[in-house]
Amino acid sequence: MQVINLGEQQSILNKFISELRDISIQSDRMRFRRNIERVGEILGYELSKSLSYNSVDIKTPLGTAVCNLPHEDVVICSILRAGLPLHQGLLNYFDSAENTFISAYRHQISDSEFEIKVEYLASPSLENKTLILADPMLATGSSFVNVYNALKEMGTPKEIHLASVIGSQEGVDYIGDHFPENTKLWIATIDKELNDKGYIVPGLGDAGDLAYGVKLQH
Fold first, then answer.
1. What string of pLDDT tens digits covers the 218 residues of the chain?
2. Which of 186, 190, 214, 216 is nearest to 203 (CA)?
3. How many Cβ atoms from other residues are within 10 Å of residue 66's Cβ?
4. What is the DSSP code (8-state) at residue 204?
5. Which domains are present in the chain?
6. Burial class of 65 by CB neighbour count within 10 A (0 to 12, 13 to 18, 19+)
7. Is the CB of residue 211 less than 8 Å from the CB of residue 84?
8. Residue 149: how many CB atoms within 10 A of its CB?
């Protein structure tokens, strides 16, 4: 798996990440969602450079212009609910993409043990298409892997791109062992550690709760 860590570059992306982490700013849910969306736009732009393009003649009022346009069939898959702002950011740039939505959540077994459950899937065929699988938090990597396994019945994608905001090195290593070798991970930053509850440290907290409010555990 190829890992493209955009946090290693100097760009405005780092400002958005700092605001997502900052406890004095992240309490503004609208701003938090918008920052996730803006990160998604940057990830989408960088990802777009790796796609295949065809030259197309475009008629203008004064003549004809040759434009290089992507010709791949793109499907964006987001993991509910935290993935929605990231999905929107990607969709802002891949506005003709098809869309897949899937649920994956932590079912707590004990204070330090949990399992990832997948319960809902709505998807077009993925056969021979370019799949962008988006989840803002790449902690243990279990959500990405479980969702990928659930999507296999929808067909085999031509390419797989993973998009994430913050990941742990452990999670990155884990998905590298469970996705095809030619998979690309586009991520805004990678932290070194997970705590004993499987959360990224320093991370930013629970992205779903920060975006949409605290949920009851079940």
1. 999 999 999 999 999 999 999 999 999 999 999 999 999 999 999 999 999 999 999 999 999 999 999 999 999 999 888 899 999 999 999 999 999 999 876 555 555 454 557 778 999 999 999 999 999 999 999 999 999 999 999 999 999 999 999 999 999 999 999 999 999 999 999 999 999 888 999 999 999 999 999 877 65
2. 190
3. 8
4. -
5. 2-51+71-212 (3.40.50.2020)
6. exposed
7. yes
8. 11
Helix (H, G, I), strand (E, B) or coil at 127: coil
What pLDDT shows up at residue 106?
A: 57
**d(Cα 209, Cα 218) in Å, to the nearest integer?**
15
Supply the pLDDT for residue 189.
98
Residue of 160, 203, 209 lying closest to 17 (CA atoms): 203
Q: pTM value?
A: 0.91
Element (H, E) at 149: helix 142-151
CA nearest to 72, candidates 51, 44, 96, 93: 51
Task: Cite the DSSP H helix spans in 22-113.
Answer: 29-48, 84-93
Beta-sheet strands, E only, within the chain: 2-5, 53-60, 63-70, 74-80, 98-108, 114-122, 130-134, 137-138, 159-168, 184-191, 193-194, 200-201
Interatomic CA distance for residues 98 and 33, integer angstroms: 22
**Burial of 20 per CB tally in 10 Å (0-12, 13-18, 19+):** buried
Return d(Cα 213, Cα 47) in angstroms, integer. Answer: 30
How far apart CA 85 and CA 173 sit, in angstroms, is: 25
